[in-house]
Specification:
The chain is built from 2 helices and no strands. The chain is mostly helical and 64 residues long.
């Protein structure tokens, strides 16, 4: 059996690599950006739905 590459053993023995805190902060920042983008997209979709309702007064189909 081959031994794992130098960085891999840390995960198995619970020794956190020095970058972990920085990576964790980066991950949190990425999640925040994703959540913000999601809210923007949802708001945009809601706006489009309102515009299309104003353009066509018929109610949406119950199956949709």
């Amino acid at each position: 059996m081959r031994s794992p590459p130098p960085g891999k053993a840390n995960r198995w023995f619970g020794v956190a690599p020095p970058k972990s805190a920085k990576m964790n902060m980066n991950t949190l920042h990425q999640e925040e950006l994703i959540a913000q983008k999601k809210r923007e997209i949802e708001a945009r979709m809601e706006q489009k739905a309102k515009q299309s309702q104003a353009a066509s007064p018929q109610p949406p189909h119950p199956g949709e």
